[in-house]
Amino acid sequence: MSLFPRSRAAACLAGCLLLGACNRGSAPAADRPATAAPKPAPTPASADESGHPRIVVLGDSLSAGYGLLEMQAYPALLQAKLNAEGYKWDVVNAGISGDTSAAGLQRVQWALSQGDVRILILELGANDGLRGLPVAEMKKNLAGIIEVAQEKGAAVLLAGMEAPPNFGPEYILSFRQVYRDLAKEHRVTFLPFLLDNVAGNPALNLSDGIHPNVEGSAIVAETVWNALKPMVDAASSSSGGLRPPAHSRPSFAPPS
Fold first, then answer.
1. Which range of residues forms the domain containing residue 19?
2. In this structure, are strands 54-59 and 90-95 parallel, antiparallel, or unpaired?
3. One of 48, 116, 208, 239 is an active-site residue; which one?
4. Is 233 an active-site residue?
5. Please, which pLDDT band fits residue 164 given cuts at 50, 70 and 90?
6. What's the pLDDT tens digit per position in 20-70?
7. What is the pLDDT of residues 111-145, one digit of tens each?
8. Measuring CA to CA, which of 3, 71, 196, 233 is 20 to 30 A from 217?
9. Does a structural domain hold residue 46?
């Protein structure tokens, strides 16, 4: 359960993405090359050198880690969790501030062609909501990304977002429903709200009151990890050496 009402969380998210795009000086998606290279989260060896399977995080400023060091962004914290539990996987942070679902669709082919990508964490759409872009177009773009990933054999973790309140209740509800419909239609793992228990809480955000701080980022990482770990286990089940020995892992009961 969120600490604040969804409307307030959505408002905070809208401000987060607006400042993330402005403060970083990001060019509009149409002006950026579609093949901007994502950076692997910090690891002892690069993903190319290690030969490990990859998890690609395709997102916007929330994944890029606005206002944080690279090692403090949630994709890097996911890498740390994998390392700590003995998983031989590499996380690639392909988050770019200001990206919309359309921008993500432009670069998903490139992102998924880099190494052995087994899982795609899809965190996009909030900038669509911030700009009041048509919900139908956002759904089409996100569906296209999911389809590309599935065609390449990658499992998808879809992170839900919230639209800002200024576009009215009908837009907000339609926006929210897009993620639920996509998860059902494409049978992907679904995380209802990336910033659950973080958005709107001053103690978990930077001094601007809207971007997750170090503590907030850690909560986001834990939220994503709870959904991601079963996916890593499933993808690793038939691949020797990609997961820790059974005696070193906590027991896991598949979600009902």
1. 12-30+51-239
2. parallel
3. 208
4. no
5. confident
6. 443 443 333 333 333 344 554 443 334 456 789 999 999 999 999 999 999
7. 998 799 999 999 999 899 999 999 999 999 999 99
8. 233
9. no
Using an 8 Å Cβ cutoff, are 254 and 189 in contact?
A: no
Does 244 reside within a domain? no
Select which of 61, 101, 217, 236 is catalytic. 61
Q: How many domains, the chain?
A: 1
The answer to whether position 250 is within a domain reads: no
CA–CA distance, 243 with 116 (Å, rounded to integer): 16
61 is a catalytic site residue: yes
186 is catalytic: no
Which of 52, 90, 174, 211 is an active site residue?
211
The domain that holds 87 is classified in CATH as 3.40.50.1110
In a domain, 7, yes or no: no
pTM, to two decimals: 0.80
Whole-angstrom CA distances from 27 to 98, 99, 108, 124 are 8, 10, 18, 17
